[in-house]
Amino acid sequence: MRFGIDLGTTHTVVALVDRGNYPIVAFEHGDVIPSLIAVNTEGELRFGHAAAQLSREPGWDLLRSFKRLLNDAGPHTEVALAGRTFLLADLVARFLEHLRDELRASNAGLSVDEPIEAAISVPANASSAQRLMTLDAYRRAGFEVKAAINEPSAAGFEYAHRFRETVTARREYVLVYDLGGGTFDASLIHMEGRRNEVVTSAGVSRLGGDDFDQAILSLVLEKTAGSRDLPTLLDECRAQKEATNANTRKFVIDDLVLPVEEVFARCAPLVEQTLTAMEPAMRDPRRGAEDAVDWNELAGIYVVGGASAFPPVYRQLRERFGTHRVRRSPHPFGSCAIGLAIFLDEAAGYRLTEKLTRHFGVFRETQGGEAISFDVLVPKDSPLPFEVARRYRAAHNLGHYRFVECGRIEGGRPEGNLALWDEVLFPFDPALRDRLDLADIPVRRMDGPEVEEQYRVTETGVLEVQLRVLDDGYSKTLRLARR
After folding, report:
1. What was the pLDDT predicted at 324?
2. Model confidence at 367, in pLDDT bands (50, 70, 90)?
3. Fold for domain 2-207+273-353?
4. CA atoms of 195 and 355, how far apart (whole Å)
């Protein structure tokens, strides 16, 4: 059986591929699984709804928004909970095992041993480390991952399925505005027939519903005297925010009553940040770096993601771009999962051309180790999969590679959402190949061998590198990990 699975910062949503329909899967306690992990002092783990019920129990620690932690994580990243430490990768895999068990008990109709095939989501601005850790966690949990798709790209399939008639010869672009619990992504998608091509993406890796909760909490604290249990107060702010709709007039926290417009005003700068962040996505590199797509060429701005249900988000978008242009998904929490399911449905016939959403490059030793230069190896917006090779005659005894991903390049330097990867030391000098530790070897000039570097970015955005000495075939192949 095939599913689209959106592992969200706040909730996890699953949609089923069912004979041309893509219903949201219903679990025992509702249509979502809270993305929560609880741990007690004995090391016991609880997940989802069971974790939520333990949030205020003595001896239990609650881990919220663990998806956000993946943005800065590597395979050895640890999390401290209830006086214990856990590998973040293990916790995510255990949560997904819980999701697997909940799926088998849901209304999806899975048989006991039936394989679970899934298309999964990742933030558009996720680093390769986050993508690799997410893929590995799903596989460890027993899922057969058929595709890993950027969240706004997945939502684009739901738009194509639901609003295809709005796409015309004059308006072939859709801008997906995806505001989730932890991230904001915007992707410009060119739609032609049943082919969706991601043109470019932009966003902020740490901006979402969690930040709205904190903004509301700061306002409440300004209005109240005395001390309160901050985690409990934050929970109340979050619950009130999620219950707010277009008809809400008051925001009530215990004895404090706030006009809802005051709450909206406190959150307005966060919405403005998303509007600023999505501007770079309104360009088609095929036209030239400076030639932006005219807003009149948009079939629509598609508003998705759980945090986009908060009324000031939709209001500010309509005020900026007009009611005729802004379309909100009927299922903002489930749009991504539905789009993933549509993509998996072979009968639907949709195709996707995805792009790399970040620059990938390397710092190198130059001038005998006395200087450092930076080279872009795979530029942002390269179509996936992508391969590139470089050959050169080594001029040093030791290659020192510092691989980096970043959101933008300014003045030849990597900037914006910088992700540092493992440093790789590669011996060009055969005499160094038996050395276990190359860190103390000084870099010196020599007449070195011919070297080839091969870089491959997979369809899921994972980076693979092979370094090879052509003279004798000595090589090293690695899938890069976060430092």
Report:
1. 84
2. low
3. Nucleotidyltransferase; domain 5 (3.30.420)
4. 14
